[in-house]
Design brief:
Blueprint: H1 20-23, E1 37-39, E2 50-52, E3 55-57, H2 59-65, E4 74-77, E5 88-92, H3 103-111, E6 115-118, H4 126-135, E7 143-148, H5 150-161, E8 168-172, H6 181-185, H7 189-195, H8 198-205, H9 209-215, H10 233-236, E9 246-251, H11 259-267, E10 272-277, H12 290-306
Parallel strand pairs: 1-4, 5-6, 5-7, 7-8, 8-9, 9-10
Antiparallel strand pairs: 2-3, 4-6
């Protein structure tokens, strides 16, 4: 369960922190200038302020002033004051998504004292996203990459290539094909236009009315979900080559990545668990069952803190 005071604690020692130099490939260790960091409501600074290049703006002002073609800053949700951080989670958004899309997910994990950072979507600028991830590698361990949609593919690719040494992967809505559903079905122009409407995109992304309302704002580039997966990303995301623990959350009613196809990809991983979300859509982190998704993620993270073999903490008893 997710406790409101972030007090999930089984009393056992946390995984020791690893240095930034250990997690970052040698070619990246020099470190470029840090990007601005937006701090969410779970942070320890007062009044929920946002810092951008030395200026202080409110969250609403930042959203209005940031243009779609600008590189989004890192958005962070930290553990409550007085709590020891239990790990670092870096969320990598999917197609068309800004880091703010994951505010609700980040807050829920931060309630349990996990330090959560959301970076820019790699579809727009993969190098910039990787640079932002590099800035976060010195955080408390375990260090986990969490990706949704193409962000999930990018996270896998980083681990497989050895460019980022994560302790685990937390994935949602893993793409299973390079083409969009309409392209794969060979729909004509009229049918494709209908299936690619804004209403259809919302329906595919989430069933949560609250999150649909948020997506209508500047945190999402409309129509991006219909764009193909970048060339080579599916091939680079070879789960068979991932040796760290993997948790997959996948909507049973995902119209973008069918569950059966996702199951085949996860089955290739040496150490993967796949959780199906009943009636879930593509964004399992932000669907109407977002509380269950966050709770399942925390249970996985708590087991990870005990070791890479994910020893059980709460086990059902047969009656």
């Amino acid at each position: 369960m997710i406790a409101p005071d972030g007090a999930v604690n089984d009393g056992r020692p946390a995984t020791p922190e690893r240095s930034q130099q250990q997690r970052l490939a040698p070619t990246e260790a020099a470190g470029a200038e840090r990007a601005p960091i937006l701090v969410g409501r779970g942070a320890t600074i007062p009044t929920n302020l946002v810092a951008i290049a030395g200026n202080i703006l409110s969250t609403d002002e930042e959203a209005r002033m940031t243009q779609p073609d600008q590189q989004p800053a890192i958005v962070s949700w930290t553990e409550s004051e007085g709590l020891n951080p239990r790990g670092t989670i870096v969320v990598i958004p999917g197609r068309g998504e800004r880091p703010e899309v994951y505010e609700r997910f980040g807050k829920r994990l931060s309630f349990d004292a996990y330090r959560v950072h959301a970076v820019a979507s790699p579809v727009e600028d993969p190098a910039a996203t990787e640079e932002q991830i590099g800035q976060l590698l010195g955080g408390p361990g375990p260090f986990v990459l969490a990706g949704s949609d193409t962000g999930a593919l990018f996270a896998i690719g980083l681990v497989v290539s050895g460019r980022v040494a994560a302790d685990a992967l937390l994935l949602a809505g893993l793409p299973t094909a390079a083409e969009t559903a309409a392209d794969a079905a060979g729909e004509d122009t009229a049918e494709a236009d209908s299936s690619r409407s804004w209403e259809a995109e919302l329906e595919a992304r989430t069933a949560c009315p609250t999150h649909r309302g948020r997506l209508a704002g500047p945190i999402l580039r409309r129509g991006a979900l219909y764009e193909p997966v970048p060339d080579g990303w599916l091939e680079a995301a070879n789960l068979k080559a991932v040796t760290v623990p993997v948790l997959g959350l996948h909507g049973a009613a995902d119209p973008v990545s069918p569950l059966a196809a996702a199951r085949e990809r996860y089955a290739a991983a040496p150490h993967a668990e796949l959780v199906s979300i009943t009636d879930g859509r593509h964004d399992a982190f932000n669907d109407i069952t977002h509380r269950t998704a966050a709770a399942t993620s925390v249970l996985f993270l708590e087991r990870l803190r005990l070791g890479a073999d994910l020893p059980p903490i709460a086990a059902p008893v047969t009656l």
